[in-house]
Amino acid sequence: MSRLETVFAHNKKTGRKALIPFITAGDPNPAFTVPMMHAMVEAGVDIIELGVPFSDPMADGPVIQRASERALDHKMSLRRTLEIAAEFRQSNQNTPVVLMGYANPVEAMGYQAFAEAAEKAGIDGVLTVDLPPEEATECAALLNSKNIDQIFLLAPNSSEARIKKMDAIGSGFLYYVSVKGITGAGHLDTAEVEKKLQLIRANTNIPVGIGFGIKDADTAQTIAQFGDAVVVGSALISKIEANLDQPEVAQQEIIALLQSMRHAMDEQL
Fold first, then answer.
1. Tens of pLDDT along 23-58?
2. How many domains does the chain have?
3. Residue 188 vs residues 123, 177, 254: alpha-carbon distances, Å
4. Which structural domain range is residue 40 located in?
5. What is the CATH number of the domain that holds 255?
6. What is the value of pTM for the model shown?
7. With the CA atoms of 197, 202, 206 and 210 taken in that order, what torsion angle do they form, in degrees rounded to the nearest 10?
8. Catalytically annotated residue among 46, 60, 124, 228
9. Contact in structure between 41 and 95 (CB atoms under 8 Å)
10. Sign of the Cα pseudo-torsion (57, 166, 37, 239, in order)
11. In a domain, 75, yes or no
12. Contact 149, 124 (CB under 8 A)
């Protein structure tokens, strides 16, 4: 059983919903990331999404785009992101780490080499934003052979047929994009989220994480009612951006937000 499967199986028994923070590897500097990952675990997160910096992050809003730019200024890359994950794994063998990024760096490395490097680094899942299920068969098979889950994005307009395609190839969890557009944009329509989750549940047994629009404890608590996990990214990155000269303050503010989300989500247990 993979680390992701273990987390979701345990949470299903207890009623707990997973809290999944996203940060960009190397933002605001490479030395910040591993301590931040450990601090997030202490704050009560279940899974960590680690963004791979990329020069053309088309699905991301301005906040995460600028995070990629800052990380790239520090010469961050897919290989250096894997090194960060490996460093985190030296003292944490339990918390799943999911890489989130774009196909170009993976294809440049080669699917086989990437799968081997990800396994060595202790990666548990890979979400490649611009690699749809129709084109992911080869990569998914290689990752699965290393006990790494291929995770896909579901959009508000994803059809029943598309959900079934992702169910056939994907594993770990499905990431439902709860608002149309780029990360950090839009307004959450909870009625629409609930309606869409009913369609998704009818076509897959894979756990569902919900993100894009989770900004505070209240939205985390509300969305936790519908999915198996709540994903928060831009709200965390914004705190880094607001404290570029004081990364220790950014860490404190991120931890405070995550703790408030964890508390609000657990109130429903």
1. 999 999 999 999 999 999 999 999 999 999 999 988
2. 1
3. 30, 10, 21
4. 3-263
5. 3.20.20.70
6. 0.95
7. -10
8. 60
9. yes
10. positive
11. yes
12. yes
